[in-house]
Amino acid sequence: MSTFKQEPHKLLLIPGPIEVTDEVLYANAYPPVAHTSADFIPIFGDSIRLTRELLYSSDAQIFLIAGSGTLGWDQVSSNLIEPGEEVLVLNSGYFGDSFSDCLKTYGAKVDEIRADFGAAVSKSDLEKALLAKKYKAVAFTHVDTSTGVLSDAKMVGETVKAISPDSLVILDGVCSVASEEIRMDDWSIDAVISASQKGLGAPPGLSIVAVSQAALKVSATRKTPVTSYYASWKRWLPIMNAYESGKPMYFATPPVNLIRAYHTSLKQITRAAPSLADRFKLHKEASQRVKDAVAELGLKQVPTDPYYAANGMSAVYLPDGLGVADLVPRLAQRDVVITGGLHKDYKDKYFRIGHMGVTAVNPERGDLDKLIAALKDSVREAIASKKLQSRTENKRTTQVRPRPYLRTTSARL
Predict the structure, then answer these.
(1) pTM
(2) Which stretches are tagged as biased composition: Basic and acidic residues (predicted)?
């Protein structure tokens, strides 16, 4: 058992990257090994199996590739969509915009249902769109990190398959996997995109994609060549199959240290207490605790309906008269790191907090206690400072008065 402990640092509570355990960080610092070595092969293969288990899937194909979560968009766009094909994007924020851009880059014809800021796309609007046109795929962001809105993945999957059973359902779960329940098989999800640095509790740098066998067949039988080299599943599928079966194979060097760290986190998530089901429950409890603290301060959440509020993060409107620069640096002075808004139209009006992974499921760390105390102190201090500044400015305005005009006369001698 290692005695490794992380260096003291500010508590990282943004919506990713997140805090990681000592064991995960230590695994990432392990001396590098050959990606074809007997030490690494079982770690890679087991990471594939555990990722599948985390998503409640019996046969999804897992791709673990060096890259950010954004690489997942490129994977599904280049492998599943051929130029000219129709895709429907359910847009609930900044990352819906970006997903659409990526799909268009690979030649997709994209229609969007754009939810109001802070809202998710409704079932009725989705049904209407599906009845009006045939789509190759329906894509949506499960938790849009820019708004903290949680879309109803179960509803989306079931609605699409009921009306348009041949349409693929693509879920961007970069900010939801491991902090929100995703039942890939039961909910008819064909692709789940994620990344290592959020709910999955590992350092950044690993693109994680799960693909249904039906979607994999669509990719294998496409009429035109895959329009990416690095993201091509035709090249990566033999690699993943080889490692899962206990054999090495080479296309591009995998990030051996990062996969070791990811594997360590996966074992903590799926093989240790609390159980996977309990982890989702603990995320909900942590989320409610943060949102209750926000409400006590008189602040309002960005999600317009609590049902659509994410459990791994919170997006909160700033108090009237305050900007991001009035609040975020004050928390940093108290060794707590949060971040400002991201949506282009509202980014200066709200802030965002991440409360996923070890922060949510390991209460003995005291992360939420520290966050809530720092948030309360910082908000009150920022409001008091703004009031003092306003009074000072008003006082200066009233003190600066024009001097009266003095009329003088001179006597003639």
Answers:
(1) 0.94
(2) 387-396
For 90-137, the pLDDT digits (tens) are 999 999 999 999 999 999 999 999 999 999 999 999 999 999 999 999
Q: Span 22-271: which CATH code?
A: 3.40.640.10
Angle between helices 70-80 and 94-105 (to 10 degrees): 40
DSSP 363: G
Q: Rounded CA gap, 206 and 371, in Å? A: 28
Residues of the chain with CATH 3.40.640.10: 22-271
Range(s) within the chain of domains with CATH label 3.90.1150.10: 276-389
Predicted pLDDT of residue 398? 62
Contact in structure between 194 and 208 (CB atoms under 8 Å): yes
- Cα separations in angstroms, 225 against 68, 71, 102, 219, 250: 24, 18, 18, 10, 21
| 8 Å CB contact between 286 and 19 | no
Q: What is the DSSP string of 315-354?
A: EEEPPTT--HHHHHHHHHHTTEE-EE--STTTTTSEEEEE
Closest residue by Cα to residue 371 from 326, 311, 331 = 331
Cα separation of 271 and 266, whole Å?
Answer: 8
In 3D space, the residue among 315, 380, 313 whose CA is nearest the CA of residue 350 turns out to be: 315
Tell me which architecture the domain covering 276-389 has in CATH.
Alpha-Beta Complex (3.90)
